[in-house]
Amino acid sequence: MEINNRPQYSPDGRLLRVGDDLKHIAFIMDGNGRWAKARGKSREHGHTEGAKAFEKIVEYCEGIGLEVITVYAFSTENWKRPKDEVEKIMGLLEKYLDRVIARLSDYDVKLRFIGSKNELSESLRLKIDKTERMTKDKSRVLNIALNYGARAEITQAVNKLISEGRTAVTEQDIGNALYTAECPDPDLIVRTAGEQRLSNFLLWQAAYAEFYFTETLWPDFGPSGVEEAINAYYKRTRRFGAVK
Ligand code: FPP
Questions:
Q1: Which structural domain, as residue segments, surrounds residue 54?
Q2: What is the number of domains present in the chain?
Q3: Is residue 181 part of a domain?
Q4: What is the pLDDT of residues 160-179, one digit of tens each?
């Protein structure tokens, strides 16, 4: 790959801007519950702090010039959690959308929700539609995976192609029928809180992604954590199956 812009650093080695070879980071935001438990607080409190960390990280990623960020906010399996916890996460999302709408000119982020909207409450669905509409001309993309599962995403993509009358499909056809069709694949996938698995997140898109796992719990994983992950990414050699 031709790299026109290399990452830029300050004289003391802080990352100022990512290069052309890092456009998209996806985050599996794990560890809110453990963070709260360690402090004798409720899981809901952990999610409140997780949402704060998320906002700081989105702002930081925008500042260093990333084109796309994707976060795993709620999986199709997360409905199995206690009702209060599910309501808390949905409530935090609604509040975040209210803030985005209220401060539209402060953010340069196009919001997109990936996942099935059918099971969401009507008020959240309406707010999602409104925010997606109001941010559609912004330049950077924030994908929020909500009620998302990668196998379901691939299945709906194939069914969409079948309903269009296709009898054979290419990899490109499938990519174009996924929720993330307009985004480059993630270059880097970060998972916090020690687990080293994808948990049904971006299975198709992750084909050539680099992975970064850290023991740090999500509420503690701020911009400095992202910077460390990016520094680790730049130490890797990506070959995409070829020989360097
Ligand atoms: C995983 O931690 C986290 C989630 C399932 C929810 C993530 C949600 C947020 C960070 C808040 C969402 C809000 C916005 C605005 C995006 P866990 O609860 O599984 O943690 P544990 O493994 O320690 O129990």
A1: 21-149+186-231
A2: 1
A3: no
A4: 999 999 999 999 999 999 99
Domain for residue 175, yes or no? no
CA-nearest residue, atom 10 of ligand 1: 50
To the question of pTM greater than 0.85 for the whole model, the response is yes
CA distance to 15, 118, 145, 159, per residue, from 201 (Å): 27, 19, 9, 19
Domain for residue 163, yes or no?
Answer: no
Task: Identify the three-state secondary structure at position 131.
Answer: helix
- pLDDT bracket for residue 210 (50, 70, 90): very high
Ligand 1 center to residue 46 CA distance, Å?
8
Determine the Cα–Cα distance for residues 144 and 115; give it in Å rounded to an integer: 9
Q: Can you tell me the distance from the alpha carbon of 189 to that of 67, in angstroms, rounded to the nearest whole number?
A: 14
Which CATH number is 87's domain given? 3.40.1180.10
Residue nearest to atom 1 of ligand 1 (CA): 30
Tokens of 101: 């709408």
Residues with CB under 6 A from ligand 1: 29-34, 47, 50-51, 54, 71, 73, 78, 89, 92-93, 96, 144, 193
pLDDT tens sequence across 220-230: 999 999 999 99
Residue 156 lies in a domain: no
Q: Which residue, by CA, sits nearest to atom 24 of ligand 1?
A: 33
Do 34 and 24 form a contact (C-beta atoms < 8 A)?
A: no
Q: Whose CA is nearest to atom 11 of ligand 1?
A: 51
Ligand 1, residue 195: give the atom nearest the CA.
Answer: 22
Q: Indicate the top mutation candidate among 28, 30, 112 to test ligand 1's pocket, ranked by most ligand atoms within 8 A of CB.
A: 30
pLDDT at 170: 97
